[in-house]
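We now fix the convention by which a protein and its fold are recorded. The integers have meaning only within a learned vocabulary of local backbone shapes. A complete example follows; check for yourself that the lines match position by position.
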Amino acid sequence: MSKDSGGSDRLTPSDAQQLLSSVPSRPRRKFKAFDHLMTVAVIAASFAAGQLALSGYGWLSIAPAIIAFLCAQHWFAARQRRVNEPRFRGARIILAIFTVWLLQPTWRNLVHQETAPWPDSLILSGLAPLLWLGYYLFLLIRR
């Protein structure tokens, strides 16, 4: 810093640059291979659960539905424990909607013995995986 004729300290451009470079950069959220694998597991298991349920195998769809639900909950809890991870207020709503859309085909098959023809079953069983993929892409874009 240099002193001007009035005796006050003036900040020179080199001093300003040095001050700016001493400020640490904002930590970024990092997505690791674990995050990508868990997302693929959630999407695959939830789609398999929906396809099994809409094909008439309601009892067999319970296992992939539980796997998808547990993977989603575990992934979300692991993300929340990380440093500098934002606390999304809407994330619990996303998890609730995902759970409802995940379990709806299984419930409808077990209670009402409802099935869906093949092209319609792709859409109906793809709601939960599509929601999870959209949520994950939203997180990737926001980082």
